[in-house]
Amino acid sequence: MPSQKSRTRGQQSQPQPSDYETDAPPIVDVSPPPPRSNEELNLSVLRRHYPDVTALRHVAPYAVLYAFNLDTEQWEKIGIEGTLFVCELTPSLSGADRFSVVILNRRSLDNFAMELTSEAEMEITDEYVILQGDQVYGLWIFSEPPPSSTANTRVETAEKIKALATQAAETRRAREQVVKNGADTAAEQEHVQEGSVPMGRQLSLRELFGQQRVQDAAWSVHNHHSPSPGPGLTGNDVLGQLFMKAKQDYNGVG
Questions:
Q1: What is one GO biological process annotated to this record (predicted)?
Q2: Residue 104 buriedness (CB in 10 A; 0-12 / 13-18 / 19+)
Q3: Is the dihedral of CA 190, 196, 199, 203 positive or negative?
Q4: Can you tell me the distance from the alpha carbon of 65 to that of 130, in angstroms, rounded to the nearest whole number?
Q5: Where are the beta strands (DSSP E) in 70-201?
């Protein structure tokens, strides 16, 4: 006969009834994020390295970067090759457009980025797109013969780089001219204001007759009954007589 303790242990080991709706975790219907395009993915990667990139203007699947050695006068690979991006950057402080060329390197962590400032600092040859920076760089852009989809990649990339370099230079010159015109206008207005008298302001006697020295503070009393001024009176006497005449007219005298 089982003891009371054994019966108690057996009762505790029995499974307890479960309310499925209460115990089961709630089902949350989370829709997956919308798929991103290749351009959005590329832009996200670029902005991790270069936060001032705002948009992609052109992509070349594969490019190799060369540098021109002035001593040997030869083009040399510098270990940077990969996808080439032509990017739009945040505008300059003056509001001019800015663009750059970026190569995300497949061989190492060293990428290449160079801002396009002027069409005068680049040249397009049959083999390279040449950019003048801290040194002379040559972009070799991969393309295959027709009817491949990459047949026109080299020409299209070169034309896009040149067009954006021209746009950057033109907008920069335009913004500089606006700033210069604004500065010239402000200087002219300041010069006019300094040399003119504000509207509604009455000129003082000092401005009309020049700096006059008052020699006698009581001249109006002394000259109250003085005769009319003669041709030999000084500037101070003339001013005194003017004031005397005005005072006499005010008092009804004269």
A1: deadenylation-independent decapping of nuclear-transcribed mRNA
A2: middle
A3: positive
A4: 10
A5: 74-89, 98-105, 112-116, 122-124, 129-132, 136-141
Q: What is residue 24's three-state secondary structure?
A: coil
Average pLDDT value for residue range 36-47: 92
User: pTM of the predicted model, to two decimals?
Assistant: 0.61
Distance separating alpha carbons of residues 254 and 247, to the nearest angstrom: 10
Place of tokens 């959005």: 40
Tokens at 178, concatenated: 């606006």
DSSP state of 33: P
The strand pair at 53-69 and 112-116 is best described as unpaired
Residues 62, 140 contacting (CB under 8 angstroms): no
d(CA 203, CA 191): 20
pLDDT at site 35: 81
- What is the distance between the alpha carbons of residues 55 and 37, in angstroms, rounded to a whole number? 13
Q: How far is residue 112's CA from residue 66's CA, in Å, rounded to a whole number?
A: 11
For the record, the structure tokens of 245 come out as: 């005449």
Number of continuous H segments (helices) and E segments (strands) in the chain:
7, 7
Q: Where are the domains of the chain?
A: 38-177, 207-251
Residue indicated by tokens 């509604």: 200
- Select from 125, 116, 122, 138 the least CA-distant residue to 69: 138
pLDDT digits (tens, 9 = 90+) for 98-118: 999 999 999 999 999 999 999
Query: Do residues 87 and 103 make contact, with C-beta atoms less than 8 angstroms apart?
Result: no
- Using one digit for the tens of pLDDT, what is the confidence trace for 178-204? 988 876 666 666 665 665 545 444 544
> Could you give the 3-state DSSP secondary structure of residue 179?
helix
Specify the CATH class of 38-177 in words.
mainly beta
